[in-house]
């Protein structure tokens, strides 16, 4: 799992948890210790505006 320095909006605990739990046999985290620490501390949850709901409604029609 590559963890480059990025916007705090992207570096969340949820993202780190997802990466760790999706690993099947082995997980190698590549990044700076401070980035990992920041992700652990970042518990903010942002609403993601993906447009998925709109796209799903279009498919149903």
Output the structural class: mainly alpha
- The averaged pLDDT comes out at 88
List SSEs in N-to-C order.
Answer: EHEHH
Strand content: 5-15%
Number-wise, the strands total: 2
Q: DSSP helix count?
A: 3
User: In angstroms, what separates the terminal alpha carbons?
Assistant: 39 Å
Q: Which residue ranges are poorly predicted, with pLDDT under 50 across at least 5 consecutive positions?
A: none
Count of separate structural domains: 1
Radius of gyration: 15 Å
**How many strands, what sense, and barrel or not for the largest sheet?**
2 strands, parallel
Strand order of the largest sheet: 1-2
Assign a percent range to the helix content. 40-55%
Specify the overall morphology. elongated
Can you put this structure into words, describing what you see?
By secondary structure, the chain is mainly alpha-helical. The chain has one domain (2-60). Helices cover 46% and strands 7% of the residues. The chain has three helices and two strands. The protein has a two-stranded parallel ribbon with strand order 1-2. Helix 1 packs across helix 2 (33-41). It is elongated, with a radius of gyration of 15 Å. The N and C termini lie far apart (39 Å).
Topology summary:
Blueprint lengths: L1 E2 L9 H10 L7 E2 L1 H9 L10 H9 L1
Parallel strand pairs: 1-2
Helix pairs in contact: 1-2
Task: Summarize this structure briefly.
By secondary structure, the chain is mainly alpha-helical. It has helices at residues 13-22, 33-41, 52-60; strands spanning 2-3, 30-31. The radius of gyration is 15 Å and the shape is elongated.
